[in-house]
Design brief:
Blueprint lengths: L2 H16 L2 E10 L4 H22 L14 E6 L2 E6 L5 H23 L15 E4 L6 E4 L4 E4 L3 E6 L9 E10 L2 E11 L10 E8 L5 E3 L4 E4 L5 H12 L5 H32 L2 E7 L3 H15 L1 H11 L3 E4 L24 E3 L5 E3 H14 L16 H10 L6 E4 L3
Parallel strand pairs: 10-13, 13-14
Antiparallel strand pairs: 1-7, 1-9, 2-3, 4-8, 5-6, 6-7, 8-9, 10-11, 11-12, 12-17, 15-16
């Protein structure tokens, strides 16, 4: 069998196997870096920027064999100087070119759809290097907790215990952050792995809000906000006083990016805790609210919680998400008789002529659950009396209570 046929058969087998798998990304940190290795990593990211900008400056260069490029021209002041690519491997160079091709292809599709797009511009810095093929571009040593990267050498790594033994390791990305260097490894796992075998309950409805970020149909309220720290405001003032192009400005920018990374990690952790709790339910129903529009009235409260990011992750992280249409009147509709009421932001309780009286957020969560399940008024009997089971209370206290920024309240 010819080499081209073997490659074709292997790719076909991989596509068939991927249909029964799901992709999971694990973040590993490079630790105990010496000065020589830190200098080597900085040089690799600098050379990746040189190569990307050299290709962007002339798109016709993408037709060249990028993996064989050994030197590029870099603009220094008003002149161009030739720089050697000494730390980038051949597959890394090829993948950087493939990234640029993907970007051009995406811009072309946006232009075909009538979107107004510009041209790709040179980057000031590159913070990610693609590692295309496991076993060649990079290799993991589970026994010694090390990773070997092409032309960069061996690095001690933290977090290999996260990757299960049945995982099929695919490509990875070497990422530079203000807090250090990380390796984002993509693994393929069977779709039936890590599923909740004993859910705490079957169905749940969620109403997103500003006061209480999440109100569940069983009465649980979840609120979390991570505001800007005083140190962040001090760094912003310090950077405003520095001179453009100076080393002090670069240092202030680095410290500012590091502080922003801490804030994002805290918000991300709060989102992870909420998602871990919601995964205990078989089916989760929520409405496709326009969170971006809420920022006009409640900007600080919306941005500090990251509700928009949580909603987008709910779509992809849950096994069976149920999404109610955006313009369904869930808050104004009475759960008992489906009568519409005009409520202002100051109205916290909905009272109907049929005798139904309920908190407006809890009423909206029940309506979202009924509409999400596609139940009629007669079929929704019993949803208005949700029973908070002891496993739900224990799971909420165990998972959500581990984050000090999350406030959980239970129905009385």
């Amino acid at each position: 069998m010819a080499k081209a046929e073997r490659i074709k058969n292997t790719l076909q087998e991989t596509r068939e196997r991927r249909k029964t798998q799901k992709a999971v990304v694990y973040q590993l940190k490079l630790q105990n870096l010496s000065r020589r290795k830190e200098k080597l990593l900085k040089k690799a990211f600098l050379e990746a920027k040189w190569l990307y900008n050299w290709l962007v400056s002339n798109i016709k260069r993408l037709d060249m064999p990028i993996n064989k490029i050994s030197a590029v021209e870099v603009k220094v002041g008003e002149v161009f100087e030739e720089r050697t690519l000494a730390t980038l491997g051949s597959q890394i160079k090829q993948e950087i070119g493939d990234r640029l091709k993907d970007n051009l292809r995406a811009l072309g599709k946006l232009k075909e759809n009538g979107r107004k797009v510009g041209i790709l511009k040179p980057k000031r810095f590159v913070n990610s290097i693609p590692l295309k093929q496991y076993g060649i571009t990079y290799n993991l040593d589970f026994a010694r907790n090390k990773v070997k990267i092409q032309k960069l050498g061996n690095f001690r790594i933290l977090g290999l215990h996260q990757i299960p033994s049945e995982a099929e390791i695919a490509n990875a990305v070497l990422v530079r952050k203000p807090s250090g260097y990380y390796l984002h490894v993509t693994c393929c796992l069977p779709k039936d792995s890590h599923t909740s075998l004993n859910p705490v309950s079957k169905d749940i409805g969620i109403d997103f809000g500003v006061g209480s970020k999440l109100t569940l149909s069983n009465g649980i309220r979840i609120d979390f906000e991570i505001h800007e720290t005083p140190r962040l405001k001090q760094l912003q003032k310090k950077m405003a006083r520095t001179q453009k192009g100076s080393r002090n400005r670069e240092r202030a920018r680095f410290l500012l990016r590091k502080e922003y990374e801490k804030l994002n990690n805290r918000r991300r952790d709060a989102q992870n805790k909420v998602l871990a709790f919601l995964r205990l339910y078989e089916r989760v129903a929520f409405q496709d609210d326009c969170v971006k529009g809420w920022a006009a009235l409640f900007g600080r409260q919306v941005h500090s919680s990251g509700i928009g990011g949580l909603k987008s992750r709910l779509r992809t992280s849950l096994e069976t998400p149920i999404i109610v249409k955006r313009f369904e009147p869930t808050t104004q509709e009475c759960f008992a008789c489906r009568k519409l009421h005009k409520l202002s932001l100051s109205d916290k309780v909905i009272e109907c002529s049929c005798g139904w009286k309920c908190d407006r957020d809890a009423n909206a969560a029940l309506v979202i659950l009924r509409k999400g399940l596609g139940l009629s008024h007669e079929q929704a009997v019993g949803l208005d009396r949700p029973e908070l089971k002891p496993p739900e209370r224990e799971a909420a206290a165990r998972i959500l209570g581990s984050n000090p920024c999350i406030c959980v309240s239970f129905p009385q």
